[in-house]
Design a protein that fits this description.
Helix content is 47%, strand content 18%. By secondary structure, it is an alpha/beta fold. Strand 7 and strand 8 form a beta hairpin. It is elongated, with a radius of gyration of 36 Å. Bound molecules: adenosine-5'-diphosphate (ADP).
């Protein structure tokens, strides 16, 4: 049983839910036992042993002054760390946990990206969500309703990617919800007091924080379901208060957003489109490609826009008009971006001022940023920008208050203040009369000292006499040993050095005391004045947040305008009908690295146009995926208000973008691709509506050919007949192209390739109609599959084609190579016979090799596996001979 200090540690640890406890002991914070082991390993700290009650305990410590960076490092790795400070009581000390730093409540993280604390609460068919970024005070809530609410909640959670999630009473028991959250987002999951989610308690918390204003916010969420959102929001605030990080006052407002006004885009789609990260980790995401922002806040906002495209025309139109004007005004835009380059993160400054971690340098940056506002407004003073929403962002701000705060800060703070706030030197003397007085007296005393050496030399006739100061001796007079004989009687020796003696005099002693007193008084006064100043900034948190957000938005818009100009993007027409018409469209990321061949796309172009479902065929690697993703990205960019990579585009707004593409990363996670593929397909078939855009890149590939074709076939029929979504479907099953003849709204397009003798050139252009070739053998050649195999494959293919032709002739349907497979899907029993016929062909081993070769996705197979595979084919073909 641990005793003494170790016992106290374990008793405190017992009482907290935190993962780790840092307990103050004098000048150190100590961790004991398992905590010490974890901290030692995570932070590479030395772990020692301490015995207590006859047992050995591990122990690791960090000096007080270094706690903050160590805490941040632990919390950023997902740990919740309780801090027990030591406070004097009676003759001794007590230690109490008065704050817990958690991943969702970390005020000063290393990166500049948003960090959300999320709460999620389910009540029947309703789910309430709240997202709070304590580093900026951003606070939003939403309500979802219906049987799909938990699934939609996952989508919302993925959009915000919180670092910490507090699931409410029901959701914390919901294993499948929690598993999905861990798989897709992996936040720290904290089981917070269920009481905090109770309606009455949450309402009370919200009212405490926002006063009467809360009445206006609450109904903004769906009046029927607003309550769950409010409960989630209340719990988040409650938690923030309970952790004691002291940042509550920076949460100045709560927004209610309606997920219905956003474009549904599940986690898979966001990943497939490589919006904010690439699937492989290499290359560039869409965000990285279009991000030309100059401020951290602008970059945060751009990310938020990209992951939350909108269905609200008014807002999108406003953004478009701003980008339009900004892209037309190169000079003004450059000037604005130059100014933005000097702007600090006002939202974060507000949080730091509120929780009292802002130092003087932070306040100086606040002042400098506020002082940029007039210059920013005048940079936007051109004729075209005058009326633009870009300028309105700034003119709507409270410039008077901003200027007044900037002036106060400027009058108070020196230009380049020191990093510590307790040792003076922060403030201008003129800022405060008492301070000025102290500084004057101090200067006078120091002046007296400066003249002292000279005066004493004169009085004593000792030439080698100097006055200096150090920490152990304080101020002293130093005289070279050779001249110590002449030292006057009132000199009092204090130290003997090798070549010199040190003395003090009563007058020097007195001055020293005075200087120390003045310095202390000055430090104290400056600290006091500084904290008042910081409190003034904290009081202005809401103002700083508003300005910070406006500046961020200006930055985001300028960045998008810059990209549009540099890459020749155009303003898309946002249409209320369903049209999707893209002229010479490009893929925003791929166009950066290759000579891009632009392509047109048109679906659902109006009455009488039955074209809603495009079957995209073409050889492997020809550009099918790129073509489809570019369509999805153009729609998405249009629905964040951005310009798009095309010569012209009309985009009928969609309510959701759904994709399923080769699930590389899922494979890496060891989940069966076919299962994942089917889950994704199932989600799409359930969730998509006729206003959605669906992108399917190969369906049914993860299973046997006939299985695969059957599933793809049925999915196409369902999407076409039941869902009616605008769909692009790339497939290597040529058999499916026959669907165009059966289903009125299905049309074939293919990516053209040119075959010349033995070689094939990908033209990258998308043309009408179906292809009849997959060029799989050519791709195999390109990949370096040995000649004997590809030559043999060509022979086999030739033979199969001949047989198919004979078969087709037999059924009286000449020249329709897909016919025999199509027959399988006719309802009669004939299909079964046909299938048997096919599998009864001679040389099944060769056919199997060929099937595998054609089915092999060269792009997704590692070279080593490719080699192994080829060797195996060779062996099997050898056996066959
Ligand atoms: P598929 O889906 O048909 O296998 P991808 O879309 O993956 O083919 O394209 C393969 C490669 O071809 C891409 O990595 C890209 O570099 C290039 N590519 C695709 N489309 C184009 C295009 N329109 N212009 C130029 N290069 C393209």
């Amino acid at each position: 049983m641990a005793e003494g200090i170790v016992g106290e540690f374990f008793a405190l640890k017992e009482a907290t839910q935190a993962d780790l406890l840092a307990m103050q002991m004098g000048d150190f914070y100590e961790f004991f036992g398992e905590d010490a082991e974890i901290v030692g390993e995570t932070l590479d700290l030395k772990v020692s042993k301490r015995s207590s009650g006859g047992e050995q305990y591990s122990m690791a410590g960090v000096p007080i002054a270094e706690l903050a960076p160590y805490l941040n490092a632990l919390v950023e790795r997902g740990f919740r760390v309780a801090v027990a400070d030591q406070q004097p009581e009676g003759d001794g000390f007590v230690r109490r946990i008065d704050r817990v730093v958690t991943p969702g409540t970390l005020v000063d993280p290393t990166g500049a990206s948003a960090r959300y604390l999320a709460t999620a609460l389910q009540d029947g068919e309703e789910v309430g969500l709240a997202f709070l970024d304590v580093t900026t005070g951003e606070f939003q809530m939403a309500a979802l309703t219906g049987p799909d609410a938990p699934e939609q909640a996952l989508t919302e959670l993925y959009r915000f990617t919180p670092t910490e999630l507090l699931p409410g009473p029901a959701l914390r028991e919901d294993e499948s919800f929690l598993r999905a959250v861990r798989d897709r987002i992996d936040p720290t999951i904290t089981e917070f007091d269920v009481e905090a989610f109770a309606p009455g308690r949450a309402r009370h918390t919200l009212r405490e924080q926002f006063g009467e204003a809360i009445e206006e916010i609450q109904p903004a969420a769906d009046p029927q379901t607003g309550e769950v959102a409010g409960r989630a929001a209340g719990a988040a605030l409650d938690y923030l208060e309970r952790t004691g990080v002291g940042v509550l006052a920076s949460v100045t407002r709560l927004g209610a957003y309606d997920p219905e006004t956003q474009v549904t885009m599940d986690a898979t789609t966001q990943r497939n489109l490589e919006l904010v990260e690439t699937m492989t980790g290499g290359g560039q995401s869409v965000l990285e490609t279009v991000d030309h922002t100059r401020t951290a806040a602008g970059a945060r906002l751009l990310r938020a826009w990209l992951t939350r495209p909108l269905q609200r025309r008014g807002e999108l139109d406003r953004r478009q008009r701003a980008i339009d004007a900004l892209s037309a005004e190169a000079l003004a835009r450059d000037r604005v971006r130059e100014l933005l380059g000097e702007a600090a993160d006002l939202e974060r400054i507000a949080s730091k001022a509120v929780n009292e971690t802002a130092d003087a340098a932070v306040l100086v940056r606040c002042q400098e940023t506020l002082a940029l506002l007039p210059a920013l407004v005048s940079a936007l003073d051109t004729e075209r920008l005058q009326q633009s929403p870009a300028r309105a962002l700034l003119t709507e701000l409270d410039h008077e208050r901003a200027a007044a705060l900037a002036e106060t800060l400027e009058t108070a703070l020196v230009e380049d203040p020191p990093a510590t706030v307790r040792e003076g030197g922060l403030l201008r003397p003129a800022y405060d009369a008492e301070l000025a007085e102290l500084i004057e007296q101090h200067e006078e005393a120091v002046g007296w000292l400066e003249g002292l050496a000279e005066r004493e030399q004169e009085a004593t006739g000792i030439g080698r006499l100097s006055v200096d100061r150090n920490t152990t001796d304080g101020y002293y007079i130093q005289i070279s040993k050779r001249q110590t004989d002449d030292v006057p009687a009132h000199y009092e020796g204090i130290k003997t050095l090798k070549n010199a003696e040190r003395y003090v005099t009563p007058a020097l002693r007195e001055r020293e005391r005075e200087i120390l007193r003045l310095e202390e008084a000055r430090n104290e006064l400056e600290y006091e004045l500084f904290t008042e100043l910081r409190a003034q900034v904290a009081q202005a948190a809401a103002l700083l947040q508003t300005i910070g957000r406006a500046v961020a938005e200006l930055d985001t818009l300028c960045g998008l305008a810059t990209h549009a100009v540099e890459q020749n993007w155009v303003r898309p027409t946002l249409s209320t009908d369903e049209r999707l018409q893209i002229e010479a469209g490009r893929h925003p990321v791929v166009e950066q690295t290759v000579e891009f061949v632009p392509n047109d796309l048109s679906v659902a172009t109006g009455a009488g146009d039955e074209r809603r479902f495009l079957l995209v065929t073409g050889p492997n690697m020809s550009g099918k995926s790129t073509y489809m993703r570019q369509a999805a990205l153009i729609v998405l960019l249009a629905q964040i208000g951005s310009f798009v990579p095309a010569r012209a585009a009309v985009v009928g707004m969609v309510d959701g973008i759904y994709t399923r593409v080769g699930a590389l990363d899922e494979l890496a996670q060891g989940r069966s691709t076919f299962m994942v593929e089917m889950q994704e397909l199932s989600n799409i078939l359930h969730d998509a509506t006729e206003d959605s855009l669906v992108i399917l890149d190969e369906v049914g590939r993860g299973t046997a050919t006939y299985d695969g074709i059957s599933i793809a076939w049925a999915a196409t029929e369902y999407l076409h007949n039941q869902v009616g979504a605008k769909t692009l479907f790339a497939t290597h099953y040529h058999e499916l192209t026959a669907l165009a003849a059966e289903l009125p709204r299905v049309q074939n397009v293919h990516v053209a390739a040119e075959e010349q003798g033995d070689s094939v050139t990908f033209l990258r252009s998308v043309v009408e109609g179906a292809t009849d070739r997959s060029y799989g053998i050519h791709v195999a050649e390109l990949a370096g599959v040995p000649d004997p195999v590809t030559m043999r494959a060509s022979e086999v293919l030739e033979r199969l084609r001949d047989e198919q032709a004979i078969e087709a002739k037999g059924s009286g349907d000449q020249g329709q190579p897909t016919r025999s497979v199509q027959a399988v899907f006719d309802l009669g029993g004939g299909g079964v016979e046909k299938r048997e016929e096919r599998s009864a062909r001679p040389d099944p081993a060769v056919e199997a090799v060929l099937d595998e070769l054609q089915g092999l996705d060269v792009a997704e197979t590692r070279p080593v596996e490719l080699l192994g595979q080829v060797e195996e084919w060779q062996r099997r073909l050898e056996e066959e001979r």
